[in-house]
Design a protein that fits this description.
This protein has helices spanning 3-10, 67-85, 92-113; strands at residues 11-19, 22-30, 36-47, 53-63. The chain is an alpha+beta fold.
């Protein structure tokens, strides 16, 4: 059996998070002993000057014995960031996307929760 066939066979569960130029893959895989582990892959798209592109990937292997501590540390780190800097995205690169998302959220909130009132009614 080829390595490619084995890799396809060992994937048990998968989720994808697309985030701009980055995509995160969360894949549950099986060991040879038929136990499960998690791989987290960051794939980042880079465009060359000639218009062609390539991806760089970074992968983390996370085993069950580390889940609890990993979750605790991830939660502590993300809570720290939110507590210190809030949830607003402040990088220039994301600012235009964040502003558009905020406008859409505001529009949907306004239309769902408030009645249209013109100034003539006041």
């Amino acid at each position: 059996m080829s390595d490619q066939n084995y890799n396809e066979q060992e994937e048990i569960f998968s989720q994808v998070l697309r985030a701009g130029r980055r995509t995160y893959f969360f894949d549950v895989r099986a060991t040879k002993a038929d136990d499960y582990y998690l791989t987290i892959t960051e794939s980042k798209k880079f465009t060359n000057d000639d218009g062609s592109f390539h991806y760089k990937k970074h992968k983390i292997y996370l085993y069950k014995e580390d889940f609890s501590e990993f979750n605790e540390m991830l939660k502590a780190a993300t809570d720290y960031i939110i507590n210190e800097k809030g949830e607003e995205v402040i990088s220039e690169r994301h600012q235009s996307n964040y502003s558009k998302e905020s406008e859409v959220k505001e529009e949907s909130t306004t239309s769902e929760n408030f009645t249209d009132v013109s100034f003539d009614d006041i």
